[in-house]
Amino acid sequence: MLSICGEIKALKLGKEIHGQVLKKDLGSIPFVCSEIVRFYGSCGDMGKVVMAFGMIPVKGLMTWTAIIESYGCNSRYGEAVDLFYEMIRCGFLPNQFTFNAILRVCEQAGFAEEACKVLDLMIKRYKVEVTEEHYSSIIRLLTSCGRTDEAENLRRLMSCS
């Protein structure tokens, strides 16, 4: 329900749902917490994003991914990247969803160098399977930044895997 409220920017209804979540003491459920953060991010209320994230007693990978996405969808790309590395420093291991989120941020921001670093982390450090979506995102980014040779090399690598 919150994701729909976020999509249609129904801030008032989403706040009412958030109130019910708090009233019914559902705020410790990771999926619910993540959806609240995403909802406020989708509505552009970064103050509420920060507040909702701060109120989460035990943060998990889902909530970290949600705040990274929220910063990204509000064009706060550098902060989203900083949060990604803060998440790692806090001991969380990024998964496919987290990598999708940070690569989307890099693509939107034009952070080609950062996207290549993230790809390197995926492969070498975290051994996460690189999907076609990951490759495509980086290829589009490299191409849009005029780094066509690197994009072509990555395209070839993608076709081999």
The total number of structural domains is 2
Number of helical regions: 10
Kindly, what is the distance between the CA atoms of the first and last residues, rounded to a whole number of angstroms? 38 Å
Q: Number of DSSP strands?
A: 0
Write down the Rg: 17 Å
**Overall spatial form:** elongated
Q: Uncertain spans, ≥5 residues at pLDDT below 50? A: none
- Could you estimate the helical fraction of the residues in percent? over 70%
> How can the largest sheet be summarized?
none
Structural class of the secondary structure composition?
mainly alpha
Helix and strand pattern: HHHHHHHHHH
Quick check: average pLDDT? 94
Strand fraction = under 5%
Furnish the topology, listing elements before pairings.
Elements: H1 2-7, H2 11-23, H3 30-42, H4 46-55, H5 61-73, H6 77-89, H7 96-109, H8 112-125, H9 132-144, H10 148-160
Concise structural overview:
The chain is mainly alpha-helical and 161 residues long. Helix content is 76%, strand content 0%. It has 2 domains: 1-80, no CATH class; 93-161, no CATH class.
Describe this structure as you would to a colleague.
By secondary structure, the protein is mainly α. The chain has 2 domains: 1-80, no CATH class; 93-161, no CATH class. Helix content is 76%, strand content 0%. It has 10 helices and no strands.
